[in-house]
Amino acid sequence: METWLKDxxxxxxxxxxxxxxxxxxxxxxxxxxxxxxAYKRAGGNTESYLLSHTIHLLLGLGVIWCMHRINYTNFAGxxxxxxxxxxxxxxxxxxxxxTVGGTKRWINIFGISFQSSDLVRLVLITNxxxxxxxxxxxxxxxxxxxxxxxxxxxxxxxxxxxNFSTAVILGITCFIIMWVGRxxxxxxxxxxxxxxxxxxxxxxxxxxLYNRGVDFGRGQVVLERIEAFAKVDLNGDKVMGNxxxxxxxxxxxxxxxxxxxxxxxxxxxxxxxxxxxxEAFSDYIYAIIVExxxxxxxxxxxxxxxxxxxxxxxxxxNTNRAFGGLLCVGLTFSIxxxxxxxxxxxxxxxxxxxxxxxxxxxxxTSILFTSVAIxxxxxxxxxxxxxxxxxxxx
Length: 394
Description:
With 394 residues, the chain is mainly alpha-helical.
């Protein structure tokens, strides 16, 4: 049995273990967190969302297995083709996307609905890793960095229009990949300065428009969320916007859930705040974890993601190719960073963003895209293990 598992499930076994634990735990949490939704939309059939989530997890595990059997070097060519499609995909999302939660983030292609940001993040990270790998023997200068800066700036900038928080996560991930990819610090500092300057200008213009009552779409929602979190009045009218009221309500309910959790929680399936948190099964699932499993459950969940990040960084040391190492860093950091953004928001340490908890929150396509990323990471570790075995036989 052990031999069969080692043959079928190759790569870093610790990552396999982390994914298995998170997936099994998510079934328990989603079953509890989605019960209120089941009574509202499924006539009280609480098993319907449990079954749906379990199927998505099994499909995700299947995707991980399929992806990890593919040589990871093949992903560079596929992602290069998709790179030219992603700007058009973001434009399509902006003009023709489905509005959910007050913003256009979802698109429907061939009957499949997904957030274009999930694909953009995967494609940009893979391409950035490939571009940096090809430049490892080059001297970095503005000319060799132009392509990297162009694609990172273009896609993150376009993404920020409809999904600011994901654009920030992706932008920081790109900086981490470039830093690990040995881009000189002076260029990274200049890029960071340019980005910060651009953000300051955009925010200043947004506040100017906000103060004059001009409706500027998603930017206004972002400002209202910052206003609600920081408890400041940016436009001086002392009147809460819609985003202010919604976010304050969600944050208060999450704080109540966390306060109820205590050290060991009130017990699996006994959440009370799931009946009041609008997105208890996705955006605020960590609050439900803390309520039901307490401080202990919160720490264990956090530890599992930190362990995943550690394995991603550890595999950089073990890989013989720059592309594989940069892929491990970028993909694992992106997943873990999103997880911590979700957790920080749930405990009141950041403005509401709508970021889910990877592999834990309910959501089919989100699970599948995360599974693709994990499958690629396992493909890298599998490739290195296979090469090590061949070298040992020589």
